[in-house]
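Weekly structure sync, notes
Attendees: PL (lead), two postdocs, one rotation student
Agenda item 3: pending single-chain targets
PL asked that the sequence for the first pending target be pasted directly into the notes so everyone works from the same version. It is reproduced below exactly as submitted, 340 residues in total.
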Amino acid sequence: MSQLLLSVLAVVCPTCDGHNPARAEACTTCGTALQASARTAARPSARPGTGPAPGPPGMKPSSRTPPPVAAAGGVPVARPPPAARPPVSAPPVPGPPVSTPAARPPAAPPPPPGVARPAVRPPAAASRFGLMVVSGSARGQRFKLPVTGCTVGRSRGAILFADDVYVSALHASFLIRDNVLLVRDEASASGLYVTISGAEALTPYAFFSVGQRLFRFLGKLDAPPPLAGRPIVYGAPVPPGQGVYGVEEVLVGGRSGRAVVTSAPLLTIGQANCDFCYAQEEGLAGRHCELSFTPTGAQLRDLSGGLGTYVRIPSGVEKALRPGDRVRMGQHVVQVELMA
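Predicted structure, written out during the meeting:
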């Protein structure tokens, strides 16, 4: 209640209903304290029938004018009109949502006159060729090759074998030409090996692999001519019409291991009853492969029954692959397959 209104209205004693002057602290009739009563009277009465009941939370109070209060002498005194309140504007009616345009990246500046704008290449489509890892730490993973091919390495390439220390940073490339899948050795340190189908011709000092073993074909070994002033080395004569050929095992680090030199027409490798015999070797068949010697080299024949005999592909040479062929890179072996 405003101070002006308190200075004009009479104070009614709540005990004896006597009228007292404005701002009186006690009733002149019964002596009841009036300051607390004035503050209580300033508030809306909560008793039923004496005033409007409070509404629900958030509801605005009614703007009706309260009844006049009797002044001293019983003459009703009209309350001054309530202060004018600013008009309450109706809440805006929601309209259709207005979409704010998203910020667009700045357009590229136009190329200089006479310079053509570079064409945006769409993503390469997938080919029908895929690779499945059948050996190594990434065993079970499958990769579908794009029509542009891909590269494989330890730190560079689309397919990475980061934990294989025998894989070079960039080891090999798979290419697709005329719907044919090719593989090429990118000058890797440990080499790229591909399985053979049937027989494969070997030249002297060619590498081939079976199971976990690596071999080098030494070719035909001719007796060195005697040197003047040096002792002459004698030995058994070479059978007429035959030659002496050698094959040696290559150990880790490129060291030479066990070697077999023979004038027999065949040299065999396997688990039992072979020239190179590795009993119970994992990945080796009983008679895994054999070499038949020719005047210019040897023919390597696979007898493993699907385990695979691998021949190293010279660096930079592209080798055509067929579905089912396997490629060895370090300790990982991938198999070529057709994918839908």
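Discussion points:
- Helices lie at 3-8, 35-42.
- The chain has a mean pLDDT of 79.
Action: rotation student to compare against the earlier draft before next sync.
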